[in-house]
Design goal:
This protein is α/β, with parallel strands linked by helices. It has 7 helices and 7 strands, in the order βαβαβαβαβαβααβ. The protein has a 7-stranded parallel sheet, sandwiched between helices.
Length: 253
């Protein structure tokens, strides 16, 4: 089946590196125009340049996506310069330091929730009116193995990614009659530049250590990116409200 992505307008958050950058280039290879949103300006600009080299229109917006004014700029740029929004990829996110509940600081909790959950909520809310008006759209989140279980990361990250799973499912049901699909991938171990903080207590890492042997092969970032492109495409036209593990079978262990 054809992906139907040629000429589509796509926003990819966290598109400057890792899974996001691989997704930007995969969408460009399908002929989609791409807006790269990232807090790292150099990475955002270079990813957009690489996408343009593939022959598509690409722009970069730099900023913290949990800030409403940055969200507004992303949507304004996509509509004004790319010509609309057909696909939103909520990929940007950060890791915690594997802390157990009693050791999570207020700062860690608030930062993880703000970036991993509030930011994609704000972007999703911002693009839904235009998608609803045009009667179509696809939103794909990067959730996590930590969306599916309690043994994949620290408390703050796990809660933030469980929240993402709930946001995906609720939004999918609310807007499916408007031609809008909402899905997520749940990557397992993947080679990216995402940083894990230094644990402040042994409780989290000790408890989690019993499960780390189940991760299996570490994926190349292009592998989960390919799943993002699939879920965004017409090839997944009847897939809605799903959290798709891309984890070499970790979720099956």
């Amino acid at each position: 089946m054809e992906t139907g992505l040629k000429g589509r307008k796509v926003i990819v958050t966290g598109g400057g590196s890792g899974i996001g950058r691989a997704a930007v280039l995969a969408f460009a290879a399908e002929g989609a125009s791409v807006l790269v949103a990232d807090i790292d300006g150099d990475n955002a600009v270079s990813a957009a340049e690489e996408a343009r080299a593939a022959g598509v229109d690409a722009r970069a917006v730099v900023g913290d996506l949990s800030a409403p004014e940055v969200v507004a700029e992303v949507v304004r740029t996509a509509v004004g310069e790319l010509g609309g929004v057909d696909v939103l990829v909520n990929n940007a996110g950060i890791m915690d330091d594997m802390s157990a509940t009693a050791d999570v600081s207020d700062e860690m909790w608030e930062r993880l929730i703000r970036i991993n959950l509030t930011a994609p909520f704000l972007l999703t809310r911002a693009v839904l009116p235009a998608m609803k008006e045009q009667g179509s759209g696809s939103i794909v989140f990067t959730a996590s193995e930590a969306s599916l279980r309690g043994s994949a990361s620290g408390t703050a990250y796990t809660v933030s990614k469980h929240g993402v799973a709930g946001l995906v499912k609720s939004t999918a049901i609310m807007y499916r009659e408007h031609g809008i699909r909402v899905n997520a991938i749940a990557p397992g171990g993947t080679a990216t530049g995402i940083a894990v903080g230094t644990p402040t207590s042994v409780d989290g890492p000790t408890a989690l250590g019993a499960y780390t042997g189940n991760i299996g092969r570490i994926a190349d970032a292009r592998e989960p990116a390919a799943a993002i492109v699939f879920l965004a495409s017409d090839a997944a036209s009847n897939v809605n409200g799903t959290i798709l593990p891309v984890d070499n079978g970790w979720a099956a262990v």
